[in-house]
């Protein structure tokens, strides 16, 4: 099944109102690439101004709480980010798993909460370097998918991102064969869980994607786009990735 490529940025805890000027050239590149979906997840405080500044881009959150509302000091709900202008949220990012101790069950609950509020979801999975070195990458990713993908997931709102933790922000990437192998396994696992709907779910690769390596990574079978951290912070680095996706 043909799936549109999705190039999604993740600004993490970076950015400012001044940095939103980067979105102008990113929005222009997105407009010039009608065969690609472009999205940018920004810190909570920038969602509203980013959505106002770049109405043609899908602006998203980097996380949401699993509850719809309540006594959760310092947390932000899916309804809140949706009201601020977010169209999607990332859940289960490895930095939240590492820094906040989030589990695959948490990612599942957050994905469900986001879907209840009409948000699209990018759910992250990926092994650590120790797990890969121990030959456990496939099993770890399969288990994460099994525990975190909601039963009603389909491509209309749900995207999976495979992000090997050791490739995030390190400048290192898996080989094409390693990416192909995990993406095939992820697709098969999705198929076991949600049946034919798995064919419509995009599976992004994430981890040190740049303008230089994007074309090669995006050409791998079952790679339906990229989740991009560092290189999404400036248009100069992000636009070449959008263009690489558009040229495929
Ligand atoms: C990420 O954090 O999702 C990511 C892929 O980061 P980077 O592109 O910087 O490796």
Automatic annotation (TrEMBL):
Binding locations of substrate: 10-12, 169, 208, 229-230
Gene (name only): tpiA
Family: Belongs to the triosephosphate isomerase family.
UniProt lineage: Bacteria, Pseudomonadati, Pseudomonadota, Alphaproteobacteria, Sphingomonadales
Organism: Sphingomonas parapaucimobilis NBRC 15100
Protein known as: Triosephosphate isomerase
Pfam families with a match to the protein in the record: TIM
One GO BP: glyceraldehyde-3-phosphate biosynthetic process
Enzyme Commission number(s) from the entry: 5.3.1.1
Purpose: Involved in the gluconeogenesis. Catalyzes stereospecifically the conversion of dihydroxyacetone phosphate (DHAP) to D-glyceraldehyde-3-phosphate (G3P).
Keywords, ordered alphabetically: Cytoplasm, Gluconeogenesis, Glycolysis, Isomerase
Top-tier EC class: isomerase
Catalytic activity: D-glyceraldehyde 3-phosphate = dihydroxyacetone phosphate; L-erythrulose 1-phosphate = D-erythrulose 4-phosphate
Keyword Transcription: no
PANTHER family tied to this protein: TRIOSEPHOSPHATE ISOMERASE (PTHR21139:SF42)
